[in-house]
Amino acid sequence: MVLADRVCKSFGAVHVLEGISLEVERGQVACLIGPSGSGKSTFLRCINHLERVDAGRLYVDGSLVGYAERGGKLHELHPREAAKQRRDIGMVFQHFNLFPHRTALANVVEAPVLVKKARRSEATERARDLLDRVGLADKADAYPAQLSGGQQQRVAIARALAMEPKLMLFDEPTSALDPELVGEVLSVMQNLAAGGMTMIVVTHEMGFAREVADQLVFMDGGVVVEAGAPRALLANPQHERTQAFLSKLL
Length: 250
Ligand code: ADP
Ligand code: MG
Known about the structure:
globular, binds adenosine-5'-diphosphate, single chain, alpha/beta, six-stranded mixed β-sheet
């Protein structure tokens, strides 16, 4: 579902991604960990067309992200084509960014109606199902300010799912939450994974990584230092940098 082959990204003179190579199979969950500034968010943003890759190749579901390949040369995709690719990818951020003046239900209905031209009645029915799936059937008419952080984040997940993505990206989805609210969000993500969704999750929730992830990826300095099955990597990290990072985390 995702194939990164030596993906590079700089901001001016700052080389943030220095050749990320990574493969995530359809239906797999990959957890990304690494020190602050190691490029985790930038990598997710490249996958989701929020940043442009400078060098290397990045594919989602077999399509080159943001470019078309013609005669051995890369051409930037027309914005309309890029937007089409992007529709298949859902993203959940640390800060939920719900529309504050819309109810939970309206937040979930919005994108399919505007972007996918779904019929409002059908989008509404689907949105109710999604709110039910994230445990918020009774909060459909609540406004974001009336919801806890954990509930808002679950609405944000439902909103991303409303576009029927084939890939979900999570960038530290629980790190802005009070500790007692983290579990309810992780459990929604765990259910999503159990349903077969392909997910890339930046998180430092090692319990989640151990239980749910198929692959744990340690990034540092803009490269993948090591990746593998979570239990094996956590029990027996091969690189000194991984060991040092994990020892501070656990
Ligand atoms: P992480 O998510 O692992 O903490 P980021 O991907 O957010 O790391 O950032 C990696 C580096 O890239 C940081 O040094 C950050 O300052 C830099 N960076 C990220 N976005 C930009 C930008 N738009 N312009 C300049 N520098 C950026
Ligand atoms: Mg980040």
